[in-house]
Amino acid sequence: MDSKKRNRRGFLRDSAALAGLAAGGAGLAKGQTQGTPTKKIDELIAYGERSRFVNSIRLPVAERHSPDEFGLTFHVLTPLQDSSGIITPSSLFYTATHRGAFVPDIDPREHRLMIHGMVDRPLVFTMDELKRLPYVSRIHFIECLGNRAKPTHKTVQETHGLTSCAEWTGVPLSLLLAEAGVQNSASWIVAEGAEEVKGASSIPLAKAMDDCIVCYAQNGEPVRPQQGFPLRLMVPGFEGIYQIKYLRRIKVVDRFYMTYDDYGHINPDPKVAALTHQIGPKSVITFPSGGQKLSGPGFYEVSGLAWSGAGAIRGVEISTDGGQSWKNADIRSTAHPMAHTRFGFHWNWDGKECVLMSRCTDELGTVQPTRAEVAKFWNEPLDKVRVRGSDNSVQPWKVASNGSVLNGLS
Which of 8, 178, 369, 380 makes an SS bond possible with 385, Cβ 3.0 to 4.6 Å? Predict the structure, then answer.
């Protein structure tokens, strides 16, 4: 660039800044005040913040106050009704139980990951050593097994807020296991976190060698403390309890071990057990959804999310008449395997009462079931059907003639 032009631009910039000061702050944007503390300016430069007009927040589950009387953060829900695209901001990512009184405060310089058990070469990695290894970045959802819609829930945040989706970066677990040399008779791993009560889960070795990631970053920055800083195990498609936070140890073993995490998640009924590992195909309409209101008859873009633990979403269908007929929705994002997928549907509302529903199909051809189909599977009355394992049944939203939207299960 010509030095005269560059100097002229700098002069104009500096002159404009001085003119603003001379005018007594007349050029300040609405909402700004003169004399903003230097500390506040430094904070904005260092990290930034969202607009004061954006107020989307997480909420605790209605069934249990958080933090509770013991200081525990139980389940905190993602505001899906406010979501755009497929990525959940790290600050709005849902949070599940921490196994102890507080979120661990771990110095990454002191943290270690040990791989041992039925391996030829037991290994211990520092964080710096892990970050020197080849890495991958992939988009995956996490969902808690307790993400179950109830008639008492009023919004999509309450019915489905225990799922979020992020870009995860880290070392493929298969690389670490290969370096350690897994022995032929091994068939499982036990992954353990560094929480006060040591959270651990048994994971099939085949899954560990397939697509699991030892993650140190989420959405382009270090994994946040509520999400397992400095290291979290990502087990794509499996329920949330397998995504071990504060990962510190992986033991290679020759059998399934009942761990702290597995207790209460194991059922002797094989029909139930099949539903407790992998999340079934699932979708939900986020607009219009419970608690929202349409302004009147006319065109609306129905929007929502679909996901499956078995792979990518192949298609989504929308019903505007309570499931009597279905029409194809448009996929509005890349359909990544085991990730949230955004869908949309053009809808002209005639102002009459109706019920909106969505259902998805994953790449295996598995179709999301309605609640009636779930009741038939368990041979139970529709109004008394109990959800076992992961609840991936279709969620209905009832649109009243005045435009208000209610939970169709109520």
Answer: 380
